[in-house]
């Protein structure tokens, strides 16, 4: 396990340790010199069984360990751990705007997205959490995170084209990110033709990044586009590529059902990834435990005799 520090400049405080050691032994020397002025000093020490000349090395070691723990906590200790997709939590965000009625991916973009997403859920490792949202002019949670694949598949099966106009990818990312708030390894799979016309995409990307959410985007649509009730609908790849790139995800261009199935299979078989874990809490706890040991266990041994 490799440990690295977010704020390594704080580690310079460790140079205080040699000064503390020097001060400790100098203090012991002066204390012993004063103590020798008492004629019955050594006699009292024998009666009480006290080693008054002890260098109190245990107390010194405890003090040094406390300093090391606190300095390391200030420096922001982190470690990385390899996790597989079975430890990931997924939110599948499906565009249900009118443009998804296009038939360039038969029978339609929405129908193909729905069926492939169901197959993806079936392929997830047992115990994997997943949820479903849809979005058009606004977003709607169809299924919160659950390990029950039947509920997720039912939610996907219920997806229909929305009567609300617009495509708000911004709100979709915000909603999906909030669902994943308490999870360790967070993944959003966003299926859309990319024609976002509501909300600020840049703000959504920043929100996902700050929440450590990885967004995989799947762009649905052929180069020639597909017919809808409102006319020809083409894919807008730029926004989908930007979302994936900025959140450390991946963009998949889908022009047929085979491409879509391959995209989902690629996501579920990504294997292991490195995830950062903040160790500050553990170093602070170590310092507190050592402080308690110092005052409760160590200190009474060296209290002045009556």
Describe the protein in words.
- With 306 residues, the protein is an alpha/beta fold.
- Helices cover 43% and strands 21% of the residues.
- Strands 5-4-3-6-7-10 form a 6-stranded mixed sheet, with helices on both faces. Strands 1-2-11 form a 3-stranded antiparallel sheet.
- The chain is elongated.
- The model is unreliable at 302-306 (pLDDT under 50).
Write the layout of secondary structure elements.
Elements: E1 3-5, H1 16-35, H2 41-48, H3 57-74, E2 77-83, E3 88-95, H4 109-123, E4 129-135, E5 139-146, H5 149-157, H6 169-179, E6 185-192, H7 201-210, E7 213-220, E8 226-228, E9 231-233, H8 237-246, E10 251-254, H9 257-268, E11 273-278, H10 280-298
Parallel strand pairs: 3-4, 3-6, 6-7, 7-10
Antiparallel strand pairs: 1-2, 2-11, 4-5, 8-9
Helix pairs in contact: 3-10, 4-5, 4-9, 6-7, 7-8
**Main beta sheet, described?**
6 strands, mixed
Radius of gyration: 31 Å
Strand proportion:
15-25%
**Average pLDDT level:** 83
CATH superfamily of the largest domain: von Willebrand factor, type A domain
Order of helices and strands: EHHHEEHEEHHEHEEEHEHEH
The CATH class of the largest domain is Alpha Beta
Structural class: alpha/beta
Discrete helix count: 10
Unreliably modeled segments: 302-306
Q: List the strand order in the largest sheet.
A: 5-4-3-6-7-10
Give the number of DSSP strands: 11
Helix content: 40-55%
Q: Which architecture of the largest domain per CATH? A: 3-Layer(aba) Sandwich
| Morphology | elongated
Do you know the CATH topology of the largest domain? Answer: Rossmann fold
The separation of the N and C termini measures 50 Å
Number of domains: 2
């Amino acid at each position: 396990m490799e440990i690295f520090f977010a704020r390594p400049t704080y580690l310079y405080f460790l140079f205080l340790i040699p000064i503390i050691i020097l001060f400790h032994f100098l203090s012991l020397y002066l204390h012993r010199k004063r103590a020798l002025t008492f004629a019955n000093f050594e006699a009292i020490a024998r009666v009480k069984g006290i080693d008054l000349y002890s260098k109190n090395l245990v107390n010194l070691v405890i003090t040094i360990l406390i300093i090391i723990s606190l300095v390391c906590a200030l420096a922001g200790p982190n470690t990385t751990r390899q996790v597989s997709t079975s430890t990931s939590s997924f939110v599948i965000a499906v565009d249900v705007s009118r443009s998804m009625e296009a038939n360039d991916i038969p029978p339609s973009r929405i129908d193909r997205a729905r069926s492939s997403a169901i197959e993806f859920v079936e392929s997830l490792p047992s115990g994997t959490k997943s949820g479903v949202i849809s979005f058009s002019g606004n977003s709607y949670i169809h299924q919160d995170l659950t390990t029950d694949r039947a509920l997720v598949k039912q939610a996907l099966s219920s997806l229909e084209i929305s009567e609300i106009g617009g495509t708000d990818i911004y709100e979709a990312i915000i909603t999906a990110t909030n669902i994943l708030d308490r999870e360790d390894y967070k993944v959003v799979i966003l299926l859309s033709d990319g024609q976002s016309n509501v909300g600020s995409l840049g703000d959504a990307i920043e929100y996902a990044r700050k929440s450590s959410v990885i967004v995989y985007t799947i762009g649905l649509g052929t180069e020639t586009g597909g017919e809808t009730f409102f006319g020809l609908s083409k894919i807008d790849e730029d926004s989908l590529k930007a979302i994936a790139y900025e959140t450390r995800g991946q963009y998949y261009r889908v022009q047929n059902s085979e491409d879509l199935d391959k995209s989902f299979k690629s996501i579920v078989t990504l294997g292991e990834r490195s995830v950062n874990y903040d160790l500050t809490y553990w170093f602070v706890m170590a310092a507190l435990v050592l402080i308690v040991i110092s005052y409760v266990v160590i200190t009474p041994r060296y209290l002045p005799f009556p």
